[in-house]
Amino acid sequence: MAEATPILIALESHEGTVRGTSYEALTAGAALAEQSGRELIALVIGSGVTDAAGTVGQSGADRVLIADAPELSLITVDGYAAALDAAIEKTSPGVLLLAGTTAGRDIAGFIAGKHELAHLPDCSTLNIEGEELVASRPVYGNKMMTKVRAALDRTVVATLHTGAFKAPVADSARDVTPEPLEVTINEGDIRVSITGLESSAGQAADLTSADVVIIGGRGLGSEENYKLVQDLAEAMGGAAGATRAVTDLGWRPHYEQVGQTGQKIAPKLYVGVGVSGAVQHTVGMVGSDTIVAINRDPAAPIFKMADFGLVGDLEEIVPKLTEQIRARKNG
User: Fold this and answer.
1) Please, are residues 199 and 240 in contact by the beta-carbon 8 Å criterion?
2) What is the maximum alpha-carbon separation in the chain?
């Protein structure tokens, strides 16, 4: 494909704000654009996102498109696909990048299948080598890395491994004027109706975008003890989640699960409460900046990757920790 074909980044939004995980795609895209001399185009999708789009140019995009419509206020595959179809037709990108969120993975697969495009999922590194996009991605529960590639004779769709790329630092000196993108969404085009969104108690922030995440594991001992996790998350202004063992027991819903078969997170601070450190879970949080483990078993595998470890009874440690944090915030 001709060298001039741009890199297109699709950015998710919620309530008029670009989701934090989407900025990771901007970092990956900017590196590709600089490496290959291509233009970096960001597409902000949502409703009432004009103000938010202004910060995207400061974060590295050469050009910012806005797909703004009431039908895009909530993330649906059909709605976002309509916006991406319009952007692809307008820009003819060589590479389309999406964040590795649940929605991003769904949308990427749908677009790739619809247009019969190559699709590279869960990429940890990205490079353009000659006329190919080359990526590395984790396999076998993050125990190995494999290299995948796709020819750039057509648009290549790729999603990112959460936490593999850090969000860029905004440069207020950059001034990129957002451009409206005309998107046609007819009645009946969006086949899924979302009637509302609910946040569970203690879930003050989305797991994939929260700076602080508190995870409860089987070591909690009972469903009632999950309140210790929620209270700590609330005190720290973070999000509460769970391991697969906890969701399998029915203590928490699946959408709160972090791990290989759940959400992938990369917070600034991860706190595991009663988490043993099984590979199924750790592949979902390995990108965390600082890891704190609280467990009564000093031989728990989680301590091998933790920056700080507390060995002891979580029913004693966690309430005291929560109390101290609240006291410091109030004093």
Assistant:
1) no
2) 63
Residue whose entry in the numeric block shows the structure tokens 């190919």? 132
Paired sense of beta strands 13-14 and 132-139, if any:
unpaired
Averaged over 105-133, what is the pLDDT? 96
Side-chain-side CA neighbours of residue 225 (13 Å): 18
Q: Facing residues of 64 across strands?
A: 42
State the average pLDDT for the chain: 92
Burial class (CB in 10 A: 0-12, 13-18, 19+), 299: exposed
Tell which residue, 48, 70, 49, 58, has the closest CA to residue 23: 58
Reduce the DSSP state of residue 52 to 3 states and report it: helix
Each residue of 195-228: pLDDT tens digit?
Answer: 877 765 444 457 888 899 999 999 999 999 999 9
pLDDT digits (tens, 9 = 90+) for 74-103: 999 999 999 999 999 999 999 999 999 889
User: Are 7 and 33 a contacting pair, CB within 8 Å?
Assistant: yes
3-class state of residue 30 by DSSP: helix
Side chain identity, residue 159: T
Q: Which of 119, 121, 124, 115 is nearest to 92 (CA)?
A: 115
Q: Give the span between the Cα atoms of 60 and 190, in whole angstroms.
A: 32
Domains of the chain: residue spans and CATH: 7-180 (3.40.50.620), 212-330 (3.40.50.1220)
pLDDT (average), residues 269-278: 97
Answer yes or no: pTM beyond 0.90. no
The per-residue pLDDT for 205 is: 55
